[in-house]
Each structure stands twice: as C-alpha cells, then as structure tokens.
Design goal:
- The protein contains twelve helices and twelve strands.
- By secondary structure, the protein is of the alpha/beta class.
- It has a seven-stranded mixed β-sheet, with helices on both faces. The chain has a five-stranded mixed β-sheet with strand order 7-9-8-11-12, sandwiched between helices.
- Strand 11 (about 245-255), helix 10 (about 260-270) and strand 12 (about 275-280) form a beta-alpha-beta unit.
- The longest helix is centred in the C-terminal third of the chain and has 17 residues, at about 300-315.
- It is globular, with a radius of gyration of 19 Å.
C-alpha cells in the first residue's frame, strides 16, 4: 500500500471526463454539489452534458431518470447521506423499479463529512439501497479501483449506486497488479486460513494492515475486498467460512443492514461459523474528522487486529 494525494472522488471525475470525451451520451447531474464531486472540469469541458439542479435531490433523480429514457447514460452525483434518504422514493420508483440507466454516485459516504455530524453521515445507505431489486452497489477502496468501476458503470446499462469517501486514500491496487474487477466477485488481497476479514470501501486498507500485523505473530488472515456488495460473492463467503472457520466484517456503516448483514445472511444459511460485525453501533456518531472517528470506533489496523486476537481465543477454546 502506497500513499496517494488524491481522493476517490477526484479519480471518479477524471475518469468520467475521459469517458465523456468519447461518449456524448454521458450526462452528469448535480445538486449544488459539483465542488464536492470535483466536477468543475467536467462542466467546463462538457457544458451541454452537465445539469445543475441546486439543492433538490429529488429533482436530480427524476430528471436523471427522464434523461435515461431518451438514451442518455446518467450519473447523478451528490452527498451519499441525501441520495439515500431525502429522495429515497425517487430512487426506488424512478430508478430501481423503472430500471433506469442512472448511476447514483454517493460522495462523502460514511463519516466523511465528520465535523458536520450525524445529519451528514451516511451510515444507513447500504442497508437501504441493497433492498431495492436490480440496483447494483459498489464501494471502491482506492483510486485505481474507482477509475475501474467508473469505466464499468459507463459501459453498463442499468441502475447502480457507487459510494465513496471524501479524503485522499492509500493505494491498495496498482495498474501493474493487473486486477480485473467483475461485479459479484470479491478480490482476495491476502491469503490465510486462520480467520477471514471481509471489508469494503475505505475499510479495506486498515483491514489489510491488520492482516500484516497478525502475520508477524503467525496468525494468517485472509482479506477479501467486497467492493461489489450487490451482486454479492456468496461463493467467496462460503469458502471463507469453510476454510477459515471465523469471519469478521469491517465497514464504515451501521452494524445493521450493511456488509456484515449481507455476509451473515449467507453464513447462517450455508456454513454457520462464528462472526463479528465491526461497524458503527446503534447510536448517533459524534462529530469529528474521519481519522478521529475511525480511531474512536476501532477502524484502525491495530484495533482490528485486537478484535481478531480475541476472536481467535474463542475459536481455540472450541
């Protein structure tokens, strides 16, 4: 893992600019959020393919669905917290039910808006979105993966939700790795048979860090990047349960209804094994930077490794 000076949202906007140069059917809609989505350059380069609706997320989704019916491939971009709550009816009916070719790009997901507090946190979005039939859900963990998923969405006809953070992230993948991202397929980042960490989004990097720490102690931890939450890689979950006998999920989301819930739904019906869902508890998160909140809730390599040590003791007693 190497440091990066740009965020996933910047990688997204750069990739979309490159795609729009060749595809004039790519349209972008924002709700007073072109700055948050770093889409200023897109607006300058392609003003006829850019729509600003102001603070009106419901309208953004409705307009996006309408444009999609005329053959446009629409990217509606704005705060994840608002697109998964304020306009949920429009997402459900106009996008998912109508199977509109609209990609909802949730910017500043999780606790990215930190200091603005719980009104701006999106810790419910995965739980809500994954109940809508036909709506794909993707969480990139770094810049390379964000670019790859953006290209995937630009070539995919159908509704989707992609959630990303606000701050610069470390590189998990590189172009040299030659990794291919296929919807419904998790990527194995680290081999191990003692325990499995299943993570998504910005939680992939600290999860991989935890595996590296534990490896020094002789504990081999498998790390799976579940960037594709829907469709879900059930086969990877079943294999992890059978081969490691212990699973911990790590997500920047409520412990209810998100990645942990999706994984546990598979585990309990196939190969029941001990599990730990590491996410935000049933409380309103305090205000603070992402870094402060990650530390507070245990989303660091050191604290994730502590959780696994405790789980390993329970596994050994059995």
């Amino acid at each position: 893992m190497t440091p990066s000076k740009i965020s996933c949202r910047q990688s997204f906007s750069r990739a979309l600019c490159n795609i729009a140069q060749k595809n004039k059917n790519i349209y972008v809609i924002t709700s007073d959020s072109k700055g948050s989505a770093t889409l200023e350059n897109f607006e300058k380069a392609y003003p006829d393919q850019f729509v600003e609706v102001g603070i009106a997320e419901q309208d953004a989704i409705g307009i996006g669905a309408g444009l999609a019916k005329t053959g446009k491939r629409v990217f509606v971009c704005g705060p994840a917290s608002f697109y998964s709550s304020r306009c949920l009816d429009q997402v459900k009916v106009d996008v998912a039910y109508a199977h509109s070719d609209v990609k909802i790009i949730g910017i500043s997901g999780g606790v990215s808006y930190g200091a603005l507090g719980s009104t701006h946190h999106s810790l419910h979005d995965i739980a809500v979105m994954r109940t809508l039939p036909g709506l794909a859900i993707y969480l990139p963990c770094d810049n390379y993966q964000t670019t790859a998923i953006t290209e995937l969405l630009a070539n995919y006809s159908g509704p989707a939700y992609m959630r990303m953070g606000r701050n610069p992230v470390a590189d998990v993948y590189t172009e040299a790795s030659g990794v291919v991202f296929m919807p419904g397929k998790a990527n194995k980042l680290h081999e191990g048979n003692d325990c499995t960490i299943i993570a998504a989004g910005e939680m992939v990097q600290p999860s991989l860090g935890a595996a590296m720490l534990l490896e020094k102690e002789g504990i081999r931890v498998r790390v799976l990047d579940f960037w594709s939450i829907k469709p879900l890689d059930a086969d990877a979950i079943v294999s992890a349960a059978r081969e490691t006998g212990l699973i911990i999920t790590v997500e920047e989301h409520s412990i209810f209804g998100g990645l942990g819930a999706a994984v546990s739904e598979v585990v309990v019906q196939t190969v029941p094994v001990p599990m730990k869902i590491l996410g935000l508890p049933d409380e309103w998160a305090p205000s603070g930077s992402s870094r402060e909140l990650f530390e507070y809730y245990g989303f660091t390599a050191e604290k994730i490794s502590d959780q696994i040590r405790s789980l390993m003791k329970c596994k050994q007693r059995k």
